[in-house]
Specification:
Length: 342
């Protein structure tokens, strides 16, 4: 197979532009990511995912989406089921842990069933952030819980449901965004808690799911670990903590490199992320100038990084296990967790 570069790109609309086709052909990115701007109808999404893979001559290219449920769901009505917010499963867990774990698996399995049918084979989920009361409101609905046990149980169930549906999960935002006091799309969150406290809480779900094939970093400044650089750009966070201390052996992706939590140019951020130990640069806004900046920093996937990337790719290319969609839908309706509230 032709060598792939260490980047994951978005595209601008419901079909590829001529520029995008040419860019993807020349750059040979490892994968792609879709957003609401790329979603119209089932047939249109199938055509778009096929076109992305054709553009880079890569029939097994991972095509990601952010399908968490609730406020972060790119697939939603009228053409698709709009999954409930992760917080709803955490609320059920407080009353009935077994039912909540079952519901999380069923919900993820249904999401995977829908994604796979559209040519989408990777999901930026589950979110393993242990949300704290001080966290920015944008995290509250997205969190699977406010304690490590709840997040771990529901995160495991979600990841399993995705994998059994032939969709590769990417856990996020490591080493934990649950104390973030800002929305990293706009500002840099800072975490002042000690590493010891983080080890007892925030890190726990990530360690429990460290065998998952992909992990996404957080654009968060952890003052007790690296007071100068946000997690995504910090060798102390990526190499020393996640790779060495945790022993994580999967592929490490950045969160969107274009987010305002990070300083410097897009090219500088991309190079710094790779130097810190990230392996795939995720770029989402589909602006050609920014994509060209990422491309100047991206490198070919070789050695252990390629092995990790190939492992993730094999999960994304896998066939779903047998599944009765009707039974799953009925059970989630019984639990009042089939769709997001209107």
């Amino acid at each position: 197979m032709t060598a792939r570069t260490s980047a994951l790109y978005g595209c601008s609309g419901v079909e590829l532009t001529d520029w995008e086709r040419s860019f993807f052909r020349d750059q040979r990115p490892w994968g792609y990511i879709l957003f609401g701007r790329n979603i119209d109808s089932p047939d249109q999404v199938r055509a778009l995912t096929a076109a992305l893979r054709e553009a880079s001559d890569d029939p097994d290219a991972p095509v990601f989406i952010d399908q968490e449920g609730g406020p972060v769901a790119r697939l939603r009505r009228p053409h698709f089921r709009h999954p409930p917010a992760p917080r709803r499963f955490a609320e059920l867990y407080a009353d009935d842990p077994e039912a909540a774990a079952e519901a999380s698996w069923l919900n993820a399995r249904l999401m995977a069933d829908e994604m796979k049918s559209l040519g989408i084979n990777a999901d930026c989920a589950p979110m393993l952030d242990v949300v704290q009361p001080s966290a920015h409101e944008f995290l509250q609905e997205r969190a699977l819980g406010s304690d490590p046990e709840t997040v771990t149980v529901l995160g495991k169930a979600t990841a399993l449901g995705l994998r059994e549906g032939g969709v590769a999960p990417c856990v996020k935002h490591a080493p934990g965004h649950g104390r973030g006091d800002a929305d990293s799309h706009h500002d840099l969150p800072r975490v002042s808690a000690s590493r010891k406290v983080l080890e007892q809480t925030d890190f726990v779900p990530f360690l429990a799911l460290k065998k998952e094939a992909m992990l996404m970093t957080a654009h968060v400044l952890y003052e007790d670990i690296d007071a100068d650089r946000p997690g995504t750009l910090s060798p102390l966070v990526v190499r020393e903590l996640i790779r060495e201390s945790w022993g994580y052996q999967g592929l490490i992706l950045t969160d969107d490199i274009n987010m305002n939590a990070l300083g410097g140019t897009i090219e500088e951020r991309s190079r710094a992320a790779l130097e810190a130990g990230c392996e795939i640069i995720c770029h989402c806004n589909a602006e050609p100038a920014d994509m060209e900046s990422v491309a100047r920093a991206a490198i070919e996937l070789t050695g252990p990084t390629k092995e990790r990337a190939d492992r993730a790719r094999s999960i994304a290319a896998g066939s779903p296990k047998p599944f009765d969609r009707g039974e799953a839908e009925e059970r989630l309706k019984q639990l009042r967790l089939y769709e997001a509230a209107a």
